[in-house]
């Protein structure tokens, strides 16, 4: 962030010096950037809703399509609204984000995998099935 | 200090002192710290999403997503949150230009969209509970209310924070500290929109589609 006149105004001189040297580099959005992000988000929200509400595709294609568009939209939000890039805070923001994504994926995939197997191996029975199996 | 902590001396080498404490500009690490908080918040939502995923089929004989969810309402809700994201973006743009009045105006609009989102969500919740689909009905509904409710709670806190900052900006103007706070809230607000993408895709659309 280059120190703009508005920001340095009212700072002590040495403060201003620091700002110029190792001032933070918060990325700022532009009107264009926000509008691109907004329009992409609207499109990426409208399509999955339309797909599910009209049932245009078969079930599996719909599920794949809405997930794919959610991933793209999250990416769009990260870039255009949260201004993520590899330069922010000397790369530490990106590192924290990558660590979090890995952690989230392990949490989700692990939970779904384990619980799916438990459900298949310990199939809950209806009273009728239980009666048939155990002669109740 | 030197008399009370003699163990810090190593032979005849003097204790190392900086002539001057390194000066960091006020709040220079706030943005990174806040980002780390958001990432930890992300882990909370990951756990809630995982819980929802594992119980999404456990209806306990109660109603499922197809009977309960009204997609037009969810679409309206999603639109409210998306509009609030772009209006917050506009607030940041006019803040950069130092325009206090316009910043307050865009923040107020953002707050109204946020409040609209919350109202629709509360209407949906009360409607569900009125139909008998309470959090106690099934594991699916317990995790649904927990996941969506936690997101709603975050939005509520965000609105309280937004009003607080509007008062502060109104009183002190766009001083560097207030700008920093507005940037933190900006990250928080956009982060909640990112989480909502997961909610409407994973909970509502998936629930109705399959």
TrEMBL record, chain A:
It holds the Pfam family COX4_pro. The gene is cyoD. It is a multi-pass membrane protein. Belongs to the cytochrome c oxidase bacterial subunit 4 family. Heterooctamer of two A chains, two B chains, two C chains and two D chains. The chain crosses the membrane at residues 34-57, 63-82, 94-116. The keyword Membrane applies. Residues 8-26 have a biased composition (Basic and acidic residues). Keywords: Cell membrane, Electron transport, Membrane, Oxidoreductase, Transmembrane, Transmembrane helix, Transport. The keyword Methyltransferase does not apply. Cytochrome bo(3) ubiquinol terminal oxidase is the component of the aerobic respiratory chain of E.coli that predominates when cells are grown at high aeration. Has proton pump activity across the membrane in addition to electron transfer, pumping 2 protons/electron. This is Cytochrome bo(3) ubiquinol oxidase subunit 4. It is found in: Cell membrane. Residues 1-26 are annotated as: Disordered. InterPro entries: Cyt_c_oxidase_su4_prok, Cyt_o_ubiqinol_oxidase_su4, Cytochrome_c_oxidase_bac_sub4. It comes from the Bacteria. NCBIfam families: CyoD (TIGR02847).
TrEMBL record, chain B:
It is found in: Cell membrane. It comes from the Bacteria. Belongs to the cytochrome c oxidase subunit 3 family. Pfam families: COX3. The keyword Disulfide bond does not apply. NCBIfam families: CyoC. InterPro entries: Cyt_c/ubiquinol_Oxase_su3, Cyt_c_oxidase-like_su3, Cyt_c_ubiqinol_oxidase_su3, Ubiquinol_oxase_su3_dom. Residues 32-208 form the Heme-copper oxidase subunit III family profile domain. Keywords: Membrane, Oxidoreductase, Transmembrane, Transmembrane helix. The chain crosses the membrane at residues 34-53, 73-95, 102-120, 140-167, 188-207. It is a multi-pass membrane protein. The keyword Membrane applies. This is Cytochrome o ubiquinol oxidase subunit III.
